[in-house]
Amino acid sequence: MLMFRAECRLTEFRRGCHLITPQVVASLPEIARIDTGLLHVFLRHTSASLTLNENADPDVRRDLTMALDKLAPESWPYVHTCEGPDDMPAHVKTALTDSSLTLPIADGRLHVGTWQGIYLCEHRDRGGRRELTVTAWGLPAA
């Protein structure tokens, strides 16, 4: 059994859904040594989230952002407002999505669908640089 862990520091993104599959994979090149296993990606923040979704059409990213903004608008009368009007809606959006993903590894690569990619959903106007803990484990390649 092999096990690897790395930190992945992302550049700052504006509010929206951003494809980060290349950065995640590049942060842990040891994935190539795993024949059959799992990759766990954990976002160490509460006002952004992760999702696995359609990665070909950029309209999907815009539509996801629009839908999340409609589900948790800034105009609601939130009590937690000390960090600005976009903070509590960001926490709600994170609760609706997730802060981690677990994905299969096969033959040294992520084994996801052709049109699937890992997204960082940045829910704040100025969320800053986001950090991920990326962990892979599994059986070694022959």
| CATH architecture term | Sandwich
CATH class: Mainly Beta
Which H/E pattern describes the elements? EEHEEHHEEEE
What spatial order of strands do you see in the largest sheet?
1-8-3-5-6
Helical segment count: 3
How many domains would you count in the coordinates?
1
For this structure, the CATH topology is Jelly Rolls
Q: Average pLDDT, to the nearest integer?
A: 96
Using only C-alpha atoms, the radius of gyration works out to: 16 Å
Count of distinct strands = 8
What is the overall silhouette? elongated
Strand content: 35-45%
Report the helical percentage: 10-25%
Spell out the CATH superfamily. YjbQ-like
Task: Determine the N-to-C terminus distance.
Answer: 12 Å
**Structural class per helix/strand content?**
alpha+beta
Biggest sheet details: 5 strands, antiparallel
- What are the segments in which pLDDT stays under 50 over at least 5 consecutive residues? none
Describe this structure in words.
With 142 residues, this protein is an alpha+beta fold. It has a single domain, classed as Jelly Rolls. The chain contains 3 helices and 8 strands; from the N terminus they run ββαββααββββ. Strand 5 and strand 6 form a beta hairpin. The longest helix is centred in the middle third of the chain and has 14 residues, at 58-71. It is elongated, with a radius of gyration of 16 Å. The protein starts with a strand and ends with a strand. The mean pLDDT is 96.
